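Input (structure):
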């Protein structure tokens, strides 16, 4: 009888644990309310109501210690509303003004130089890394790539060359050691270190690397790519979880950007496009609570931009066969945008940092670029002439 009671207790505990894990998973992976059911997916989506909120949002992120001039904007921004200027705040807003096409009209040449000076001040002169003023929670290599790209958007470059890159990209052995150091168990954030390659692409001056450094990097990337999904699945669990996941998608995008900017085809592109289709949620978005919130944001950029970049690496026949599915996917996503964004106060309610708005705005730019490429028409109106920063720089 005692053994039976112990067995019953253990079984109850196991059931409780399994039930708790299941409940937590349902909560964390909840993709938000489905606002796509009553949406006319074939129609254009007007986001003017959302875009009207952006000017006030931007001003709230300007360091109150400085006077804000909307016609001569400088880089005194914080990643948090009402905060003191920092690295990500300054770079985020350079992206936002560039993506919306307002950087030239809302700044002066002198102002852009001063803005660049703020960003340059966060670079370590000894190492060349941007390891100062970073309150975003992102890695040093992510910050270095992001700051380098932001300076390029402003028409400037880092003060000091990326000499640290010579210890990563000079030999195949160094590149393999660099990849071995990635956090493959969480490849979405682990692959942020591919930003090292992006920083070199965007600011190569003064770095002594072999002429074929990029070829060596891409060869190492390709060796680790998963031919079944087109993603990079090298975590211990991936031997069992062979299907594509949203985390895999977030990681794969960082690799795709490097292939694109080095002018090479992306490996296993057909499988990757099918994986993006599979990971879209029924609500139209790709994320959920566990991915920083169940509303449109940066992970959607990885999907929409992924479609667009991958199209250049598939055969004409495959492209023709998958085009209708991609259009339907973007239609569904646009309905989600309409549902989440087109209401008063949506910007401040959903996006609590300047960095979140960068990901969203670049996604909207990608929606129109991709949709126009496939149909000849823009999907979103009321957004002005958006540009995707990833067409000009190698990192976001």
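Output (sequence):
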């Amino acid at each position: 009888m005692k053994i039976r009671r112990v067995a019953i207790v253990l079984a109850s505990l196991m059931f409780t644990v399994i039930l708790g894990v299941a409940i937590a998973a349902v909560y964390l992976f909840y993709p938000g309310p489905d606002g796509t059911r009553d949406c006319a997916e074939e129609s254009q989506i007007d986001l003017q109501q959302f875009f009207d909120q952006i000017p006030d949002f931007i001003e709230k992120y300007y360091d109150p210690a400085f006077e804000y001039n909307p016609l001569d904007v400088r880089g005194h921004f914080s990643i948090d509303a009402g905060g003191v200027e920092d690295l990500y705040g300054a770079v985020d807003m350079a992206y936002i003004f560039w993506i919306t096409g307002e950087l030239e009209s809302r700044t002066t040449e002198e102002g852009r130089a001063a803005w660049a000076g703020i960003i340059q001040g966060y670079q370590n002169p000894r190492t060349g890394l941007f390891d100062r003023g970073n309150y975003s929670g992102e890695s040093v290599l992510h910050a270095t790539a992001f700051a380098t790209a932001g300076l390029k958007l402003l028409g400037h470059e880092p003060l000091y060359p990326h000499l640290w890159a010579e210890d990563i990209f000079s030999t195949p052995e160094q590149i393999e050691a660099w990849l071995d150091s990635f956090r493959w168990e969480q490849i979405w954030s682990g692959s942020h270190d591919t930003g090292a390659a992006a920083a070199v692409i965007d600011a190569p001056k003064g770095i002594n690397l072999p002429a074929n450094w990029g070829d060596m990097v891409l060869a190492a990337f390709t060796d680790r790519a998963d031919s079944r999904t087109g993603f990079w699945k090298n975590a211990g669990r991936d031997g069992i979880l062979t299907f594509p996941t949203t985390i895999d998608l977030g990681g794969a995008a960082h690799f795709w950007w490097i292939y694109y900017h080095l002018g090479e085809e992306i490996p296993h592109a057909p499988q990757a496009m099918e994986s993006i289709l599979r990971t879209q949620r029924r609500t139209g978005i790709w994320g959920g609570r566990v991915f920083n919130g169940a509303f449109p944001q940066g992970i959607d950029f990885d999907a929409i931009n992924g479609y667009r970049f991958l199209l250049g690496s598939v055969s004409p026949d495959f492209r023709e066969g998958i085009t209708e599915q991609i259009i339907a996917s973007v239609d569904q996503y646009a309905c989600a945008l309409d549902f989440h964004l087109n209401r008063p106060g949506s910007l401040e309610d959903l996006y609590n940092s300047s960095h979140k708005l960068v990901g969203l705005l670049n996604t909207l730019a990608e929606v129109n670029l991709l949709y126009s490429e496939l149909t000849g028409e823009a999907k979103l109106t009321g957004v002005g002439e958006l540009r995707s920063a990833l067409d000009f720089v190698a990192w976001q």
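Notes: DSSP finds 17 helices and two strands in the chain. The two ends are 63 Å apart (CA to CA).
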